[in-house]
Automatic annotation (TrEMBL):
Family: Belongs to the copper transporter (Ctr) (TC 1.A.56) family. SLC31A subfamily.
Localisation per UniProt entry: Membrane
Gene Ontology molecular function: copper ion transmembrane transporter activity
UniProt keyword Transmembrane helix, yes or no: yes
Organism: Parnassius mnemosyne
Membrane topology of this protein: Multi-pass membrane protein
Classification via InterPro entries: Cop_transporter
Transmembrane regions: 59-76, 139-167
Keyword annotations of the record: Copper, Copper transport, Ion transport, Membrane, Transmembrane, Transmembrane helix, Transport
Protein name listed in UniProt: Copper transport protein
GO cellular component, one term: membrane
Xref: Pfam families: Ctr (PF04145)
Presence of the UniProt keyword Repressor in the record: no
Amino acid sequence: MNPAVLETTNIGLQHRHDHGDHDMGGGDSCTSSHAMTFHAGVCQEILFNGWMTTTALELFGSAVAIFLAAVLYEGLKYYREALHTRATTATGDSQVNITKNECGNQGACGGTAIVKYSMLSSGHIIQTLLHIVQSTASYILMLVFMTYNVWLCIALILGLAVGYFFFGWRKSTVVDVTEHCQ
């Protein structure tokens, strides 16, 4: 065989992940190796070294925590929209600048009002801080899903579904423009 081909083959083998050394069935030999396929094992490192499950009870507790985090994430998305809706219906608020359309000062026209926050208004600062929290939470939940543990993925999906069930019916729009993973 050509030495250049052999060297390329060996380099390719060096970069393969070996995930056969850890017990995903709940035995005593848990390692911190990351599985790259969906699995239903009990041994799971979640997000960082200190969060390692080795028993079914630990995995269940982690799944409950992830479920609750997903419900709260949906609640945060609703809360941001509710704050924005409240700001659009507020009249006379000096922090919100509602632009006037062609009607001038005669009163309300049939058109919709466009709400613009000034950059340093309290409403915009609060929305910015909540956006940071929402973005961070969405990426953390994505990383939890990327553990590929079936039980954690199910807990996350169910948490998002329950959160939407509790908060989504109150939303004024069907399309979620604040979602980062669309």
